[in-house]
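hey all, quick one before standup. I had two proteins in the batch that finished overnight and I want to keep them in one place so we stop losing track of which output belongs to which input. First protein below, input sequence then structure tokens straight from the run.
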Amino acid sequence: MRLLRIIGALVVISALATNAMAYSNPIFDARRAAEDLRAATRALKDARIAKDRVKALSRTIKAYEDGLAAMRDSLRKAAIRERALRLELASRRDQLSQLLGVLQTLERASAPLLLIHPSGPLGTARAGQILTEITPALVAQAKELRAQVEEIVLLKSLQSTAREDLQQGLKGVQDARLSLTRALGQRTNLPKRFTTDPAKLKTLLENSDTLTGFANGLVDLPFDSTTQTGAISPKSFSDAKGEIPLPVFGTILRRYKEADAAGLRRPGILISAPAVSLVTAPWAATVRYRGPLLDYGNVIILEPEAGYLIVLAGLGQVYGEVGEILAAGDPIGLLSGQEPTTDDFLVEATQGSGKIQLETLYVEIRQNRKTVDPEAWFARQNR
């Protein structure tokens, strides 16, 4: 009878062990994310004295954003894993108690006593053989159970240890953004094309009642000179289809001409990303316009080559000036919204509710006055 109890308990723990293998390790992920944030902090110190501070600070901000996103994801997985373990252990409380009882009996009883069988020497030999085969596995599975209990303890403590890493990471990315703003204000060596007549640009802006009308009018509003230096790409924009990176690290919320909640279909894509995320030029381009436009908020329009325009709308802050020639990856602005706090990260992880504010960036690509599907141009991987 005792052997049947042992075998039954062993089956239960084997199932627990099998389930434990079907998840990624959120503790390891959180530690790796914390190290990424610390690496970004070290990079920030170097970026402040780098020869090209704008480029170095932009990379640092991206590193911070990657680290914070990874920390957010790992904390959410850790909370889910902890709840799953607790529910699983609670649902098998009786069976686990039975296992612990059997293990305690095996520990207290002497080996000769355990091997005595009422059917005589043959039964005793068979019982001994069975115990010899299953006892090591039973002990191994008991260790696995203890590891799961210890894992719960580690997952619980992860929240408190992550707080300090999050605080340092959030402070670091804020400092990096301020440093970037100052560096952009002090930059004087950016190549420029002769700009469009400001009066004509103002007239076009005042007389445009749609984004399409403004963009088409911009094409008809040429620069005073076609002279252009700097930011030359080895490949033309038209040949880079499917290769250019998204301008912000986020998720495509609405696709090209997909209807929104009000049934409105826009000829662009909508990217959802955390508030105040850095937006960068996806390709070397000239700034054709920057500033407020209709109901799109702050807009920047880039010309990667003749016949093409990239429209980015919904920015909270815009960098650059009309006529400047940007390299791929140069900062062009920040999304709007409020920077999340440490508590926002922790509450979202433990409660499963969205406490971290998300903003959206609207993106159009225009070719010869017509919109094209931006998803066909952007690479599958954001970074």
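OK second protein, same deal, sequence then tokens:
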Amino acid sequence: MIAPIAWRTPPRHYGPWELVTSLLTEALVSRGVDVTLFATKDSVTAAKLDAVVPAAYCEDPAIDAKVWEARHLAHVFEQAREFDLIHNQADFPAHAFSGLVNTPLVTTIHGFSSDRILPMYKPFENRIHFVAISNADRHPDLRYAATIHHGIPMDDFPFDPVGAEDLLFFGRIHPDKGVREAIEVARQVKRRLHLYGIIQDEDYFRREVVPWVDGEKIIYHGPVGGEARVNALGRAYAMLHLINFDEPFGLSVIEAMACGTPVIAMNRGSMPELIEHGVTGFLVHDLEDAGHALAQVTSLDRNRIRHRIAQRFSIDRMASEYIDLYEAIISGRTATPMSEHLAAIS
């Protein structure tokens, strides 16, 4: 399993690709699959950790991203013959090595950002097995092996049957994520708004967010992890996810709903695949819609919200679908049942 090296696996606070890599790795190990995780040296896993990268490049300024990413991948592919299959979670640079080895390669595409990256995908589509994380994120010109939605360990997200009166924004502080829009809606409906997330666009933060943060009605908490993260997701009237782009997935969306918190999201990208309108939240088209949706939140059953997420987005479901895919690839079949054991997955 090849993890990205932007952050530790699992991440301490932010790092969605590393988080998914960790969740899948640990779920596979719990199933008895022999997994070697290639990640940063400080990563934590029940799998065998094999690492040459001293630390994550977003956490240690001494780490040159380009240099250590190349070293990281070279270290993996030098050992390719030792594995039945290599699962790449670290984007397209690994594709450059794929023609040099006979070991099958799976790449989970954590978001198809633009056509500009197509030259590192299209020429490899008959050699590499691409997995989309949502149907909405599939590129029309690319061949895929499967769409597999992310899953989460439900026990890590305790159910909050009551929530609170306050609203929640949870995500990157970036124009794409609709922070300013969340503030506008919160002010419109006169509810307190809690903002959580790393600042990814400093100019946007200073221009569109800081003027409204007063510590009373609009409160910025920064990035959070651990128990504070779970508490933030569960103790809310609703989460506002008023995105300005076609989001490939949205882990915080299913995490909030796992706690029972309904999500009000723009009807874009993968949101219709994650949110059941009128059941687990509401899909809206503009800020006026969002305000109306908030008035209907009390009609939603928080227990039912959690139940639906447990049915559709469990870590066990994700692990099972990936094992099915691994089996099909290794055996050369297009569809196979899960086996009792895979010898090794890198």
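Flagging for whoever picks this up: The CA atoms of residues 33 and 341 lie 6 Å apart. Confidence is low (pLDDT under 50) at residues 334-346.
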